[in-house]
Amino acid sequence: MTEQYRADVLVSCLHDRAPELIPALEAEIEQRGLEGEVRVVEAGCRGFCHMGPVLLIEPDNVFYVGVQAADVPELVEETLVKGRVVERLSYKEPSTHACISYCRDIPFYNKQERIVLRHCGMINPESVEEYIAVGGYQALGKVLGSMAPEDVIKEVKESGLRGRGGAGFSTGRKWESARKAEGEVKYVLANGDEGDPNCFMDRALMEADPHSVLEGMIIGAYAIGAHEGFVYIPYEHAGSAKAMGNAIRQAKEYGLLGEDIMGSGFDFSLELRLGAHSFVGGESTALMHAVEGKVSEPRPKHVHTTDVGLWGRPSCLNNVKTWNIVPEIINRGAEWFSSIGTENSKGTQVFSLAGKINNVGLAEVPMGITVRELVYDVGGGIPDGQEFKALQIGGPSGGFLPPDLLDMPMDYETLAEAGSMMGTGGVIILDDRTCVVDTARYFLDFLQDESCGKCTSCREGIRRMLEILTRIVEGEGKLEDLDTLERLGRVVKSVSLCGLGKTAPNPVLSTLRYFRDEYVAHIVDHKCPAGVCKALIEYYIIEDACTGCGLCRRKCPQEAISGEKKKPHVIDPELCIKCGVCFDVCRFDAVGVR
Amino acid sequence: MPKLKSLEELEKLRQQLQGDIKARAGTSTTITVGMGTCGIAAGAREVMHAILAELDARGIDAHVTTVGCIGMCSREPLVDIQQGDEPRVTYGNVSPEMVPRLITEHLVEGNVIEEWAVGRVEG
Predict the structure, then answer these.
(1) Domains of chain A
(2) Given B9, B22, B65, which is nearest A83 (Cβ)?
(3) pLDDT tens digits, residue range A469-507?
(4) Above 80 in pLDDT, residue A12?
(5) Count of A–B CB contacts within 8 Å?
(6) What is the pLDDT of residue A38?
(7) I need a labelling partner for A76 at 20 to 30 A (CA). Which of A193, A223, A253, B57 fits?
(8) Is B55 on the interface with A (CB under 8 A)?
(9) Å from B107 to nearest chain A CA?
(10) Which residue ranges form the domains of chain B, and what is each CATH number?
(11) What is the pLDDT of residues A438-467, one digit of tens each?
């Protein structure tokens, strides 16, 4: 028996769906006499969230999805002992149902270019040894051993890296300002306060590859001349906090944090700060307030945080993804990084795909990918044969892109021109059964909750807009409301202090721009084209399709459905509360919405 | 664990640790052992253990994988060796005792052992 393992079973995307899976795998491996030969590794997120738990068996690259403990005996016998693929557990391509056995052949993965997610799902996040084995901390060694701080800044500047937190400011320039700022004491901070309701990339990254964030931060601290840093994570993201805390402890043990790092004479210490989670808390000045122990509200930024930041000192705050990219730029060079992406948006972007899309999960693709490629190639298209209606990007305050823009390249500038924004890359796909007015209303509702209330425009403006939208979805809108919405939106955008207020009207303004017809249909025709807004729809039974099975009649909570056996039934609109149960239970598609 | 004092120490540690994740890293050599029921009955597991032990003892980077039956059951255990773009050579009736010579002559010295080989597929 040998110390070197011939095969590694990497388990990802468990999400509590199969807590007994790993013990079952370990027990079966032991029973089969494979211990010391085959190893089970609990790796971080592989991005294929809805397919979890997923298994990647290396070196054969065999990939299994939706694995449960009951599958373990067959899987171990067939694949780990005999080297055969269990096709039952392989990924099935949603449109062709083709069985794909190897990870490298799955379109979701082979269309990606993974820089931020380079180690995610490939290493054990709790092991600094595995991070070092895949080349971790080499960039830090290179920086401390052979580069002056100015060289590091120059390299990052030339790479064209822009902050991945949402605003997309040049990272190199930010570092340069912080380096030039006067003051003995400076700070670096990592923003791990991911606040968008549908985003999970920062969490996934910190849980799957925490050391890459630390390495980037140490390099950044060296470049700007900081000796102290903080990682801010909301309490709610307990997994991220645990992973980062563990990583900090390990890095200290190896002397990668602390005094005289790797004999270079450079000192740097890093602390984890946990705080309450809020949407506005991810704003840079609000986050610094939170680290100081104050209420996380933003302040005016006519003085940059690189001059006056945390405790009034020059501070450099970057998103965890930005920090994570830095070591890779140092290792592979600015030229390599700037060769990926578009003219002004370099590198890759991690998108979290959610909504009406087959491959819900995290995907990293080069900047400038078209909407079509993201939705259909990487995302695997729209489920249930529905039509693509819109792509909403940039978090709750991002905008909607209509089908006309399917071939638009996605980068910072193009998205901004289209009335949306890159944000942190949260993407929600809407199909033709989703109402854009209702969705815009949902986002406004979220934003009015999250508004800190400091600026009147944001606090009151969003609320008024929400009231108008609520009127429209209830069928009581007026055509003048649309102009009022646009005017209010412009005011909120121009008068509010921070990014939340400046972008909050986007969902409404962009839907008014691209889907005005749908608003008009709600107001003038009192109809919801997608069949969502309850006040405007009516369920009815399609006589020709109804078999008279009586299922809907039995399920209807209002007893609003009547009819004889084996004869078409009818819904009484007076009694119907539009709960949609009949629509969901009918096996013959005999319930329609109008 | 000892604190890292220099870049050289980090590099040394990395090299030590690399073997630990060998299965996930790229290597140019793949040794494939036939592990169908026929292979197992003929002693393929023992042969594979001998290969793993030999590679470990000599510190050679190679992936060892298993495959199902390819039909030539009478010659099991079958062991394929593929190095880079070289042809993939299949050896038949391999026993644990034959493993050290296979590794030395084929893997290290690059000479195919003609009398043991039963097949060859161009790389």
Answers:
(1) 7-106 (3.40.30.10), 128-337 (3.40.50.11540), 348-431 (3.10.20.600), 436-523 (1.20.1440.230), 538-593 (3.30.70.20)
(2) B65
(3) 999 999 899 999 999 999 999 999 999 988 888 889 999
(4) yes
(5) 109
(6) 93
(7) B57
(8) yes
(9) 17
(10) 24-121 (3.40.30.10)
(11) 999 999 999 998 888 889 999 999 999 999
Q: Please answer whether residues A139 and A326 qualify as being in contact, where contact means their C-beta atoms are separated by less than 8 angstroms.
A: yes
Residue with tokens 């290179």: A142
Percent of chain A residues past pLDDT 70, beyond the cut: 99
Contact call for B5 and A135, based on CB within 8 A: no
What is the residue-averaged pLDDT of chain A? 91
Q: Does residue A422 sit in helix, strand or coil?
A: coil
Q: What ipTM was reported for this prediction?
A: 0.89
Q: How many whole angstroms separate alpha carbon A394 and alpha carbon A401?
A: 11
Scan for tokens 């078209």, then name that residue.
Answer: A370
Question: How many angstroms away from the CA of B63 is the closest CA of chain A?
Answer: 7
> B42 and chain A: CB distance < 8 Å anywhere?
no
Mutation for testing the B interface, residue in A1, A3, A4, A85 having most B CBs under 10 Å: A4
Q: In what order do the strands lie in the sheet with B88-91?
A: B63-67, B29-34, B79-83, B88-91, B117-121
Single pTM value for the model: 0.89
Give the whole-angstrom CA distance, residue A267 versus residue A270. Answer: 10
- Residue A382 predicted with pLDDT over 50: yes
Q: How far is B96 from chain A (nearest CA, A)?
A: 13
3-state secondary structure of B121: strand
Q: Is the pLDDT of residue A16 over 80?
A: no
Chain A positions in Cβ-Cβ contact with residue B50 (cut-off 8 Å): none
Contact A123 B14 (CB under 8 A): no
Ranges of residues in chain B whose predicted pLDDT is under 50 = none
Judging contacts by C-beta atoms under 8 Å, the chain B residues touching residue A134 are: 21, 25
Q: Which residue has the tokens 């950044």?
A: A220
